[in-house]
Specification:
Layout (H helix, E strand, L loop, with lengths): L1 H20 L1 H28 L3 H9 L4 E4 L8 E3 L6 E3 L24 E13 L4 E8 L12 E5 L7 E5 H7 L6 E4 L2 E12 L8 E4 L5 H10 L8 E7 L6 H8 L4 E4 H5 L22 H36 L1 H9 L4 H33 L1 H8 L10 H27 L3 H6 L10 H22 L4 H26 L8 H12 L1 H35 L9 E4 L8 H11 L2 E11 L16 E5 L26 H7 L19 E3 L3 H5 L5 H8 L3 E3 L10 E7 L2 H9 L7 E9 L11 E3 L1 H6 L3 E11 L5 H14 L4 E4 L7 H30 L1 H9 L5 H51 L15 H22 L13
Parallel strand pairs: 5-10, 7-9, 16-20, 17-19
Antiparallel strand pairs: 1-11, 1-12, 2-3, 4-5, 4-11, 6-9, 7-10, 8-9, 13-21, 13-22, 14-21, 15-18, 17-20, 18-19
């Protein structure tokens, strides 16, 4: 035991000394190992620090209160809720009766002896230094002890008077205001003074102002509605404290009154699933990741870590071999003084241990320091404050041990190789001759065969990506094992090469022990790059084929769905002023009920319109029988009949794009046809005659008219539909003109002439505009327009049709750069080792009169040969997984397509899943990267070496 300790102590001391002497090589290996450790340790610290304990999470949502009571708008109907209050369901069966709706007085659900604090949240547009900003308005007496922890004051103080507000730091930054500024809201002339700033620890990027209860939301909402504008939509919850807290039994008791409770006591000590009534209902449960899913996630993480360690070992292994080769005389002296193979291996392994420990310490310490220093930046990026700087020593120790293990694994092969050299060979510098292993290529060939078979099976017989990925990984590892044999095959090419590249190739083939790891490292990096690049290029081609233009190329659409459209005229003019507009077509929408209603509003004062599609024009697969509204219409057809109906004109789905409105009806004139590029003189005449133009013949009845029903009482209409009764509402009929199906309407279904809408007594409000442009708007023009629109504070939906824009180019470029750096690094390490081996040959060449450039040329070709072999093998190996994944995707999409046909869901065209090889990326890898590596190696190599006598061999 003592001998073992002393021998390893001596070996580590020697390794430490050698590492210090060769600072450049040691730093290179240390950086390769330490950088991943730095990233993983920093990620671990960030994620753990961002995780909140149950107490911290409760404090951010409840403050110092025992619970929060909220109204789910079920009309006081008893309900069941999950312990966290996120999920709930009313008690009873509502399949055959209307869903409960209505407000509930939450205060009546408070238990005796409870104290409460109202917390009301709404939103409105507030005036800023730049214009208007849609902001959340919160009325909460934040100075109350019950609110402690909900927000953190960062400057000034909290409001104490009705004309005072505080604002979040994010709002002040976005608005250009500051503490002491005056604040007003659009449509409301009362001024408020900002007296303080604060932040929400769980939502740092929230634009919010805080006022006292009743000071801002109620008067602002009243003023907005008086001006026929959308209100603030306030919602109120109650923070409450009660002696002993809200137990689970109390929560269930309050649920019987139709109120949801988020309880501190329940969050800190949740009940068992068997005690939660909601979880006992069919379709509900405490869903968590299954054991199989967790195992798959761990397997995926383990695979990634394993492949990353393999790549580092393949890169660092030759570097350790360089050190061992340059220290062979020292190792020979150890053997000459009584050291055996164990001691030689210990010295080389000690180098890996020393570098691994140093990398573990450096990576972990830097990870800790950077995470601590960048904590504010990380918090801002994540949008929330850390719960604390959470350091998990065992996790960091495990991450650090990965560095030590990587260093040892990288040094194993050089250690075994060095220990097999005789003392005489080490002292004289002789390299000796050792045949390559015959077992490793056989194992590699078996792995390639099995891996390819698994990947092929996964891509043709199953729909599981993990099978394809696992088979591809196994096949790639097999190619790595085959690398020495494949390097030998490259040697046959040397017969046709000039002197310098022939010498470089011969040297690489004869010394496969140092060439193979570097080639394998390049192979692994390039294979991954080619796989991802092929998959990305294929996906990009699929997206380009599936892209549907929303407008003609260069055209612009602008819509504002808010309220009565009072800002639409101003925005129309702004767009026309700042963009190169040729034709402008204004559009309106039909408002049912109050003109201030937004589309699809749930307000009782708001209605909706529906286009009455004739029964014979309805798709039989989707046409609901009024007498049986709950019955699936497609259930009465066989699979063959559903497939046949899928090709029926009534069941074909129209193209998307354009502007969406209720019923698909837009009010506009013939200019819109011009913008959309629709050449139909008859349609223009129909609009001039006060008719409606249809782009979907399903909407036209036998009288060549389109019926539009105005539903003013949406609740009554829904009840009538559920009972299979006729939906109440006035019907307006318009003479229609059908445009030819060959015209592309870009999602537009019906265009109603303004005169027709007026004569029918319909209420219309400004909705937006379409524009055709002389030239495609530039980025600068769009930026100026976006800046002007931001100042209006209006939610503008603006679209400029630029055609399909590929995002794959930047991905492919990044992958190429990554693979190039790995290739140059691995080839450079192999070149350094080759120069250490070939120093005697270079001295002989110099002695016999070889020009100085030979050393530089030979070094460049040595680097280029390694890079070229790795890139060629990696390119071939990387295509397999990408092709397998694409075939698997095609099977999945075809399976869904076939199922949709069988079920009668209505589908479009057959899935198109192309496989595209990124030839530009492959060309850069196969040509530019090896040439660049060769040139770089030639440039950094000295032309003249120290002339010395040829050492005896």
């Amino acid at each position: 035991m003592t001998n073992w300790y002393h021998s390893w102590r001596a070996a580590i001391r020697i390794a430490r000394r050698d590492a210090w002497r060769s600072k450049g090589r040691s730093f290179l290996v240390l950086a390769m190992i330490a950088l991943p450790i730095l990233g993983v340790s920093a990620a671990d610290l960030t994620l753990r620090s961002a995780e909140l304990s149950a107490e911290q999470s409760v404090q951010r949502s409840l403050g110092a209160a025992d619970g929060r009571l909220s109204d789910p708008s079920l009309g006081g109907m008893p309900l069941m809720q999950s312990p966290d209050g996120v999920n709930y369901d009313p008690v009873g069966d509502f399949e055959d009766k209307p869903w409960p709706e209505g407000k509930t007085d939450v205060t009546k659900a408070l238990p005796a002896g409870a104290k409460s604090l109202t917390d009301t949240v709404g939103s409105a547009k507030l005036r800023t230094a730049h214009g208007l900003l849609h902001t959340e308005i919160r009325e909460l007496k934040a100075t109350d002890p019950m609110a402690k922890g909900l927000l953190t004051v960062t400057g000034g103080r909290l409001p104490q008077k009705a004309d005072e507000v505080a604002a979040t730091d994010h709002f002040l930054e976005s608005s250009g205001l500051k503490v002491g500024s005056q604040l007003t809201a659009r449509g409301f002339d009362r001024e408020y003074r900002i007296v303080g700033s604060y932040e929400l620890p769980g939502a740092l990027d929230t634009d919010q102002v805080n006022a006292l209860p009743g000071a801002l939301l109620a008067p602002l909402d009243k003023a907005l509605k008086a001006a026929d504008m959308s209100g603030t939509s306030p919602s109120t919850t109650l923070l409450a404290t009660v002696p002993g807290g809200f137990t689970w039994n109390m929560v269930k008791d309050i649920n019987t009154k139709g109120v949801i409770v988020t309880s501190r006591a329940v969050a800190l000590d949740p009940p068992a699933d068997s005690e939660v009534p909601l979880f006992q209902e069919e379709g509900w449960g405490n869903f968590e990741a299954s054991t199989a899913a967790k195992a798959a996630a761990l397997a995926a993480a383990g695979t990634v870590v394993g492949l990353a360690m393999l790549e580092i070992c393949l890169l660092a292994g030759p570097a350790f071999a360089v050190g061992a080769r340059r220290s062979r005389r020292q190792l020979g002296l150890v053997g000459a003084n009584g050291g055996d193979r164990r001691h030689i291996r210990a010295i080389v392994l000690g180098g890996g241990l020393v570098i691994g420990v140093a990398a573990a310490v450096v990576g972990t310490v830097l990870g800790l320091a950077l995470t601590y220093l960048l904590q504010p930046v990380l918090e801002d990026y994540m949008g929330k404050r850390f719960g604390g700087f959470d350091v998990r020593p065992l996790e960091l120790l495990g991450i650090a041990l990965l560095a030590v293990l990587t260093g040892l694994l990288a040094a194993i092969v050089p250690a075994v190789t060095s220990s097999r050299q005789t003392v005489l060979a080490s002292l004289t510098g002789r390299r000796g001759v050792r045949r390559s292993s015959r077992v490793l290529p056989v194992i590699g060939l078996i792995a390639v065969t099995i891996g390819a078979a698994i990947a092929l099976y996964g891509s043709t017989m199953t729909d599981q990506f993990v099978v394809v990925a696992g088979g591809s990984a196994l096949a790639e590892l097999g190619v790595v094992a085959l690398t020495p044999a494949l390097v030998g095959l490259f040697g046959r090419v040397g017969r046709i090469l000039p002197l310098s590249p022939r010498l470089a190739l011969r040297d690489a083939v004869r010394n496969r022990g140092r060439t193979a790891p570097a080639v394998a490292a390049v192979l692994a990096a390039v294979a991954g790059t080619v796989a991802v690049a092929t998959y990305a290029a294929s996906s990009d081609a699929q997206e380009a084929a599936a892209y549907e233009a929303q407008l003609p190329h260069g055209a612009v659409s602008m819509v504002i769905e808010e309220g009565s459209g009072r800002d639409v005229p101003q925005v129309r003019d702004t767009v026309q002023k700042l963009l190169p507009v040729d034709v402008r077509a204004d559009i309106d929408r039909i408002a049912v009920g109050s003109p201030s209603c937004s589309p699809y509003s749930d307000d009782k004062a708001c209605g909706r319109l529906e286009v009455v599609v004739p029964l014979k024009n309805q798709c039989p697969l989707w046409a609901v029988d009024p007498a049986k509204p709950d019955e699936d219409p497609s259930a009465k057809f066989s699979k063959a009949e559903r497939r046949k109906l899928n090709d029926d004109w009534r069941c074909r789905q129209g193209g998307g794009g354009g502007v969406y409105t209720e019923g698909g009806v837009i009010v506009g004139d013939a200019k819109l046809l011009q913008v959309l590029g629709i050449d139909d003189p008859a349609a223009e005449k129909a609009l001039a005659a006060g008719q409606i133009v249809s782009f979907d013949k399903r909407n036209i009845n036998d009288k060549s008219k389109i019926d539009i029903q105005l539903v003013t009482d949406t609740e009554a209409a829904d009840r009538a539909f559920e009972k299979g009764q006729k939906i109440p509402g006035e019907i307006k009929s318009f003479t229609a003109h059908q445009v030819a199906a060959t015209e592309n309407s870009y999602g537009l279904q019906m265009l109603l002439a303004p005169a027709a809408a007026k004569s029918a007594g319909l209420t219309t409000v400004p909705f937006g505009a379409y524009y055709s442009t002389d030239t495609l708007p530039t980025t600068e023009q769009q930026q100026r327009l976006d800046d002007e629109l931001d100042k209006t504070g209006t939610d503008v939906a603006l679209h400029v049709e630029k055609g399909y824009t590929s995002e794959a180019s930047i991905i492919l470029l990044s992958l190429t750069v990554f693979a190039g750096l790995i290739t140059i690094g691995a080839a450079g390490i192999a070149t350094g080792l080759a120069q250490a081996d070939a120093e005697a040959d270079l001295k002989t060449l110099a002695a016999v009169g070889a020009p100085p450039r030979v050393r530089r040329t030979l070094s460049g070709f040595q680097c280029g040969v390694v890079a070229a072999m790795g890139v060629v093998l990696g390119s071939a190996a990387g295509v397999l997984p990408a092709v397998g994944l694409r075939l698997t995707e095609e099977r999945q999409q075809m399976a869904w397509y076939e199922q949709a046909l069988d079920e009668g869901w209505g589908v479009g065209e057959m899935p198109h899943v192309p496989i595209v090889v990124p030839w530009e990326t492959l060309a850069a890898l196969l040509v530019a990267v090896p040439v660049g590596a060769a040139l770089l190696a030639a440039l950094v190599t000295r032309s003249r070496g120290a002339l010395a006598r040829r050492e005896a061999t």
